[in-house]
Every structure is written in C-alpha cells, then in structure tokens.
Amino acid sequence: MSTSRLTKWTNHESYFLGNTWTHSSVKETDQIRPSKPHGGFVSNWTVATDPCTHADLRNLHGTFVQPISQAISTELLPIFSGSKLAVNNDILLPSAVYWNDDKRFSTTRRISWEQKRDEVLWRGSASGGRNTANNWTRFQRHRLLSMLNGTQVQMAIEVSQNGHDATDSREAVEKTPRGRHNLPGNFPLPNQSLYPLQSSALGLLPDWLRSISNAAFTWLVCFPATRDYACSYTGAWYRRGVEMPFYRMFKAKYLPDIDGNSFSGCFLAFLRSNSLPIKATIYKEWHDDRLVPWRHFVPMDNTFVDLWAILEYLVAHDDVAKEIASEGQKWADTVLRKEDMLVYVYRLILEYARVSDDRRDEMGWTPAASGVV
C-alpha cells in the first residue's frame, strides 16, 4: 500500500497504543459520551484535543479516515508548522492566514451582541479529507451539518422510534428530491441521561434546530472531483449555500469552528468578532496556551455529542454567552495581535538558534554574564 493511501491513524498507531489510557480503549466506541467530561461537557481542553484519548476519532475525523495529503518522517529534523497533532513534534508558528490582512476575515465592522441574531451560522466546504461514496459519513463537517439539520434529525428520531438504530444508515431509506437514499446515520440521538434536553424531551428538537440553525456547504467536495460544486453521493442530504462574507456571519451569535483538512483558519476572526466561537479540533496552534476554554470560547467535544446541549444552554443563558464572547474578543485584541505574533516568532528564532549552536551551553543568560550581582 502506498503511503498516500495510509490513514494518519495508521502512521501514528504505535504512538497511540503506547498511551496506556488509549490502549485500553482501542475497541470501537459508542460515540455517545465525550472523553473525561464534566457533566457531559469538555472539562480538559488538552485531553479533548488529543486523539490519543479518543479511539473513536479513528472513524469520526477525516484526518484519520483518509487525509487529503500527508508527509511523514521517522528521522529527527526540524519542521515548522501552523498546526500539529498532539502526537507530532512540529515547532509551531503563527499561521500565515492569521498574519495576512485578508478582507474575508475582516472584523472592522463590529456588531454589538444585542444586534446579533439568536442563530447558529456555519459556512464552508465539505473538506476534512478525501471523502468518497464509501466513507463520507465518517467526516466531521458532514456530521456537523447533519446535526444542525432539523429534517435529518427528525428522520433519525422517526427511525429510532421504529426500533432501529439511528446511526445505522442501512436501517432506513428516505425519499428525497433526488430519489431514495439511505439515511446518513452519521450522528447519535441525544443521550437523555447525560443531556436532558428540554427540546428533545418535548419532541421539539427538529423544529428548534430549524429555528436557530443556518448551516450549509459552499462546495460539496467530491472524490473523484466533479466539474461543478455538486456531489452525486451527498447532494441528496446537503444543500449548497451561497458563500457569505464574514461581516455577515458576524451578525449571528453562535459560530461553530471545526477542522477542515487541517485547522480551520477562522478561529482568530471569530474571537475578534464579538460572536461566540464553539470550537472542536484535534490540532494544536501557537496560541493555545493563551486562551482559556469557557472564558474566551466554548469548547466542544470532537464527537459533537454535546452540541445540542451547548446550544440549548447558551440560548437560554444569553448573559453567559455574551460574557464569554466579550471576554474572548477583548483577550484576542490584547494577546493575539500582530505584535504578539512577532514577539512569539522572534523569541522562537532566538531559542532555535541557541539549541542549534554548538556553544549552546555558553549562550544562556546568567547574572554574572549580565553584570548583575
């Protein structure tokens, strides 16, 4: 098998299995309960973003299903990257997408929280890896849009009420505008013992999602590729939405931010927008140590099983959502500026130069060398 066809999970499997917690959890998981949560919600962001603690991500994230591209090495050599997995030793730099003055990510038109809509808004391409007719239901972006689609959720509920497993697409076939298709079966229904959703208990979850959700793909990416933005095997379940400039997206209060082929690149703009980012990722970035989950943004498990409970809580506690969004914006304007990126890179260059120098033991700062007694 060629390296290009290996999954990234296969390439890192020896590392994953070396982790004692993961080694006991290599069996398939039920995608119902997040890893080490507090009340069903993310309590440890480091753990939540580490694939070593999530054996289920092998079948729930495009990076491990079939990545779009990858380059691996077993040799010791310095690699500078804008993001990395927890198992990698890349040296992190601020990504160019954060440095460039891209008008798409402009946050100059800031909108007050009170002027924003009670809306969950997401736009993006169906990226995340090489999705095919046989594996697309295992990709994270498709799963997010299915979970925000009231019609798909309603169909899954009806299948479950008929005694079938809602995550098994073979159990039901639905009539769609393009013919009869198996349900995607790419998400579980709420676990009422862990997430006692009021909307779910009253049977209102599908209608509630329709009232607050505005999520669509701008490009139904297919493999093999098509000449237009459509896709034969996913087009029955996902509408293609028009691309939306960020200043229009920032009119919504809630902005999910999830991985594509790598990290999304939208996070910094979302933080600065005074809307509330709801973030799930497996990728580490340069600024991670500067941000505090639940204070500057809302963390979400990579299975997304906590998504509906997060949204229901935030919509019902608008003051809490507003405070987190405001704190995130103020902190991003304080510690994630271009000046902060420059200082970070300058210090990184100094440290790298020192460890690369044969005289590294003589180059450290000491009180005697500095004239301080």
Question: How would you describe what is shown here?
Answer:
There is one protein chain. The chain has helices at residues 8-18, 20-23, 45-48, 62-65, 96-99, 140-147, 150-161, 198-201, 205-212, 246-249, 267-272, 307-316, 318-335, 338-356, 367-370, and strands at 37-38, 41-42, 80-81, 84-85, 91-92, 117-125, 173-176, 179-182, 213-219, 252-258, 276-280, 283-284, 298-299. It has 373 residues and is of the alpha/beta class. Helix 7 packs antiparallel against helix 9.
Low-confidence stretches: 1-6, 14-29
- Inertia-based shape: globular
Strand order of the largest sheet: 9-6-10-11-13
Q: So how many helices?
A: 15
Task: Report the biggest beta sheet as strand number plus sense, adding barrel if it closes.
Answer: 5 strands, parallel
Secondary structure class reads: alpha/beta
Distance between the termini: 63 Å
Average of pLDDT: 84
- The value of Rg in angstroms is 22 Å
Q: What's the number of extended β-strand segments?
A: 13
Give the total of domains.
1
Strand content: 5-15%
What is the H-and-E element order?
Answer: HHEEHHEEEHEHHEEHHEHEHEEEHHHH
Helix content: 25-40%
Compile the SSE list and pairings.
Elements: H1 8-18, H2 20-23, E1 37-38, E2 41-42, H3 45-48, H4 62-65, E3 80-81, E4 84-85, E5 91-92, H5 96-99, E6 117-125, H6 140-147, H7 150-161, E7 173-176, E8 179-182, H8 198-201, H9 205-212, E9 213-219, H10 246-249, E10 252-258, H11 267-272, E11 276-280, E12 283-284, E13 298-299, H12 307-316, H13 318-335, H14 338-356, H15 367-370
Parallel strand pairs: 3-5, 6-9, 6-10, 10-11, 11-13
Antiparallel strand pairs: 1-2, 4-12, 7-8
